Amino acid sequence: MVVVRWPADAERRAQLADRNLPRLLLLDDGIEPPEAPDCLEDWVRLPASEADVRARIQGLLARGRTHLRDVPEVDAHGVVRYRDGWVALPPVEARLAEALVLRFCAVVGRDTLRRSVWPGSSPGRNVLDVHVLRLRRRLAPLSLAIRTVRSRGYMLEPAEAQPEAQHADAGGGEAAWGVP
Question: Which member of 28, 83, 141, 151 has the lowest number of beta carbons within 10 Å of its beta carbon?
């Protein structure tokens, strides 16, 4: 759960939203709130009582627990957890999974994946393809699918999110809050 100032911390807000982290926006009087991109965001206008801020935070945390059950996690040991299942991954595939989980249900470019998995080097296209294929197979029992997005990259999403006809994708509390 992260508290950010709006609009001063707009870039940080976007990063937190990309990472599916709950966030509370603190708005100065007279500032219009932005449209929330998901259920993990709320706002409170300053000055606000401590009780109001705590209530917003508790609501966000409750929604986050419900919402985030459907977002996979990769722990420091390379274990992917999703819903009621888990699978342990080798180091390269764990780094690949981390990069895909950070942008769950969004396209991740091939270059971004290469930099995430092999920083400082650039393996050939086939090396990435082989690891994506292996990762697909390991994540399938968790009902997760890696879709190939032609000429763009890959997308990790729930396996049931796409009709069977499109299944053939060959080849391929961070900061404490304070009210001023």
Answer: 151
